[in-house]
């Protein structure tokens, strides 16, 4: 709760307490309330009540009720401000989170391309195509790629195991699963990879 809201809530309670106090005075004066007549049937001031106290209490209650309405309006406006601020902060946090994701996970850049795929090979089965640009090959990406020997090491350690391969094809990323294994042709992939 904001400091301004706390002050408004305190003010609201003080007004309600005062209205209650003046209401008790009216109750003590024969329960005349806010509308009961202050004269008897003959038109004379009632002798069974303190007319001055009743009139003052009624006047005070009317003023306090107006003050109460004004404070309630201020509280409503403050609530709108609090909710609007909370929404802005939440949207700001979402934007910051989005920015953080973009910074921590930059778009992958190609480091090699496929210039040959043998029919029936593991590469062919994995849907690799000539012209595919390699964005990620297992744990290798543009940031840590040095030579094709890096790719060869990944293949050697992944015989008969799945390797996640991400390629750029026609401007779109494609995530493929390649399983290096022995086949009727040479090597374990059946494709040729050249560095960019």
UniProtKB/TrEMBL annotation:
Domain called PDZ: residue spans: 97-171
Coiled-coil residue spans: none
Keyword Chaperone recorded: yes
Record InterPro entries: Nas2_N (IPR040815), PDZ (IPR001478), PDZ_sf (IPR036034), PSMD9 (IPR035269)
GO CC terms, sorted: cytoplasm; nucleus
SUPFAM superfamilies registered for this protein in UniProt: PDZ domain-like
Record's keyword annotation contains Chaperone: yes
Keywords: Chaperone
Domain of life of the native organism: Eukaryota
Gene Ontology BP annotations: proteasome regulatory particle assembly
Family the entry assigns: Belongs to the proteasome subunit p27 family.
Protein name as annotated: 26S proteasome non-ATPase regulatory subunit 9
């Amino acid at each position: 709760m904001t400091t301004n809201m706390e002050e408004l809530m305190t003010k609201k309670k003080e007004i309600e307490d005062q209205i209650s106090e003046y209401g008790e005075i009216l109750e003590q004066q024969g329960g005349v309330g806010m509308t009961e007549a202050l004269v008897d049937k003959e038109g004379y001031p009632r002798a069974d009540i303190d007319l001055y106290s009743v009139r003052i209490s009624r006047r005070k209650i009317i003023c306090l009720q107006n003050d109460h309405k004004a404070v309630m309006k201020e509280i409503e406006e403050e609530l709108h401000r609090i909710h609007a601020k909370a929404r802005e902060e939440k949207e700001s946090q979402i934007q910051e989170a989005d920015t953080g994701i973009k910074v921590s996970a930059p778009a992958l850049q190609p480091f090699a391309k496929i210039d040959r795929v043998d029919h029936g090979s593991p590469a062919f089965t994995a849907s690799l195509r000539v012209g595919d640009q390699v964005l990620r090959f297992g744990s290798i990406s543009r940031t840590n790629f040095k030579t094709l020997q890096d790719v060869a090491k990944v293949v050697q350690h992944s015989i008969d195991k799945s390797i996640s391969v991400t390629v750029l094809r026609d401007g779109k990323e494609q995530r493929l699963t390649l399983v290096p294994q022995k086949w009727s042709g040479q090597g374990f992939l059946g494709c040729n990879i050249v560095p960019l």
